[in-house]
Amino acid sequence: MKGNVYGYIRVSTREQNIERQMIALQEAGVNENNIYIDKQSGKNFQRPAYAKMLSLIQEGDLIIVKSIDRLGRNYQEIMEQWSIITKEKKADICILDMPLLDTTKTKDLLGTFISDVVLQLLSFVAENERDNIRQRQAEGIAAAKARGVRFGKPVIPMPDNFPELYRQWEANHLTINELASLCNMGRSTMYKRIGEYRELLYLEMPLD
């Protein structure tokens, strides 16, 4: 191997443990200083470590990752990153969980063809499995709600005299902090409940 060898690790904030991927990369011969790690939430796919690593990659370098889904969240992203690394950067990729996806060993036409076919198949399977997981989660949540299971923080009940407290607050006889304290909740929750109460008052207004 003439170029530099890099390793990439990606975990979600819910899956903070990087040890499994780290061990696999080190056993594959990646120097710890050349391992780039991103920890991200489900809603945020900004990957500063990956972007930094990609800016350093040159022709002849090698990127090693443990599994194909570390490269992207879905089929399109995985294929896009594979193309950037292998075609634009002219670097190699090795997927440890799938020995057929090792471009250092598939330089001939047949090997490249097999690698591309396997890549597309695995990318599709990875995305399809994530879709199935999301569907099972949604079905589980729907079934739980049907059984009466409630999700999220419990709603704090309003005191019986809230209408009077609300009128005092509107008349500037109470501050928002005092109103929130009397209702046993924080300011942000108080503002939310005020909005809900105002909406209720509006709905109860007689039509002209």
Brief summary of the model shown:
The protein has helices at residues 19-27, 48-56, 75-88, 109-146, 162-170, 176-182, 187-204, and strands at 5-12, 35-40, 62-65, 92-95.
Which key phrases capture this entry?
208 residues; alpha/beta; disordered C terminus; 4 strands; single chain; elongated; 4-stranded parallel beta sheet; 50% helix
Folded structure, characterized:
This protein has 208 residues and is α/β, with parallel strands linked by helices. 50% of the residues lie in helices and 11% in strands. It is built from 7 helices and 4 strands. The chain has helices spanning 19-27, 48-56, 75-88, 109-146, 162-170, 176-182, 187-204, and strands at 5-12, 35-40, 62-65, 92-95. The protein has a 4-stranded parallel beta sheet with strand order 2-1-3-4, with helices on both faces. Strand 3, helix 3 and strand 4 (92-95) form a beta-alpha-beta unit. The longest helix has 38 residues, at 109-146. The radius of gyration is 27 Å and the shape is elongated. Residues 204-208 have low confidence and may be disordered.
- What is the 3D shape? elongated
Q: Give the strand line-up of the largest sheet.
A: 2-1-3-4
Largest sheet: 4 strands, parallel
- Rg is 27 Å
The total beta strand count reads 4
Output the helix-strand order.
EHEHEHEHHHH
Q: How widely separated are the two ends?
A: 82 Å
| Continuous helix count | 7
pLDDT averaged over residues: 80
DSSP helix fraction: 40-55%
Main structural class: alpha/beta
- Give the DSSP E fraction (strand runs of 2 or more residues): 5-15%
In terms of per-residue confidence, which ranges show pLDDT below 50 for 5 or more consecutive residues?
204-208
